[in-house]
Sequence to fold (401 residues):
Amino acid sequence: MTNPPMLPYGRHVIDDDDVAAVAAVLKSNALTGGPAVDQFERALADVTGAAEAVACSSGTTALHLAVLGLALKPGDQVVVPSLTFLATANCARYVGADVVFADVDAATGLMTPETFREALTRGGAGRVKAAIPVHLNGQACDMRGLRDVAAQHGISLVEDACHALGTTYPGNDTVPVGACRDAVAACFSFHPVKTVAMGEGGAVTTNDPVMAATMRRLRGHGMERNPLESSIPEFALAPDGTPNPWFYEMNEIGWNFRASDIHCALGLSQLKKLPQFLHRRQELVALYDTALKPLAPLVQPIGRTGGAVGWHLYAVQIDFAAAGKDRATVMRALAALGIGTQVHYFPVHLQPYYQRLYGRRTLPGAEAYYSRCLSLPLFPAMADADIARVTDALVRVLGRN
Ligand SMILES: *Cc1c(COP(=O)(O)O)cnc(C)c1O
Fold:
C-alpha cells in the first residue's frame, strides 16, 4: 500500500496556461523592465479597485516601500499587531522607526479599534505615525473603526493584506481589500503559499499618486530620468539646453525591489484565476466547518468576522490541554498521516530581537490565540475528500472517535 500524498498546509496551483505565460516572456526581449510589469500592475489595480498598484519583489519589500512612502524615520513609532509574520514589524525597523505591538482579539487574531487604542497608550506622545493592521487568515480588520482611531491621532494606516487578496470588507461586500478607502496603502504578497503565486513577488496598492511615484522611484535605486527638471542641469542638459540622452540622477537612497517580467507574467496569469481560486477556497472552508462540528468544543474554527472572505489559511483553535496532547505531538502525528499543518503565528513581540529592544511584555489576546491555533491544509487543488481525510486524521490524533 502506498501512502497518500502529503497535504501541505498551503501551496500554489500552476496550470499549463501559467507555464505558457512565463515561457512567452522567456522567449521575448524583456525578462525585466518590460510590459508584463505594467500589465500586472494594471490588472491588480483593477482587481482591488485602487488607482495604482506598484509591483515589487516580495510582500516584505511591499511593506518596506509603504513605510518609505510615508517617510517614516528614526524616532517615529508604528503600531503593529503582534500576531503576524515578522515582516509586518520588521518594515518599521528597516527605516529606523520603533514598533509598538498591539494585542489582538483572542478569537479572530485581528487587531481591533480597542487593541489599537490600548497600544497607543503605550506609544510616545505624538510619536506614533503609522499603524499596520493585518487581515489575518484572509479576514479583514474593522478598517472603519481603526480609521476613526487613527484619524483622532493623525496616524496613517497601511493594510498588511498579504493574506487577504479577494476579501471584501465586512458590512461592505462591494469594496475589495486593497481599494484603500480607509488606509493610505495596502501591501500584498505573491509568495507561492499565498492565494496568487509569482514565485517571489509583492505589490502596494494606493490611491495617492505621489506616494505611488515615490515607491516606484525607491524600488529602483531612487533613479530619476527627468533631465528637464534636474537639480543638476549642467549635467542633465547639453550647452544648447537639449536633454542628454544618457542622463539619470539620484536624489535619495533607493533599493532594487523590482519584480521581473518573468514573475509578473506568472502573477498576471494567476490573477485571471482569482475568482475560481476564491470560490474553491470558500467551498473548502464550508466543508471544513461542517466536518469539524462534531469535534467542538475541542476543535473550533477561529472567530468569524462575516462577509465574503478570500480565505488564505484555514485556522482552527484546539484545546490541547483538554485533548491531553501538546501541539508538537499533534502536528507530528498529523504529519505521519500525511497532513501538513503550521502555526500562524508565534507572537512577534516574543521574538528575542524584539524582547531585547522593548523588553518582555504580555499581550494576552495574541498569546491565547497563539497557544491554541493550528492551520490545516487549504489550497484550491484539494479535493472534497481531502477535507474528510484531514478531519478523520484529527479525530484519530486527538483521540475522539
Ligand atoms: C507572507 C507575508 C508577508 C511577507 O511576504 P513575502 O512575500 O514572503 O515577503 C508579510 N505579511 C504577512 C501577513 C504575510 O503573510
Observations:
- The CA atoms of residues 233 and 239 lie 10 Å apart.
- The domain at 275-398 is CATH 3.90.1150.10 (Aspartate Aminotransferase, domain 1).
- The first strand starts at residue 52 and ends at 56.
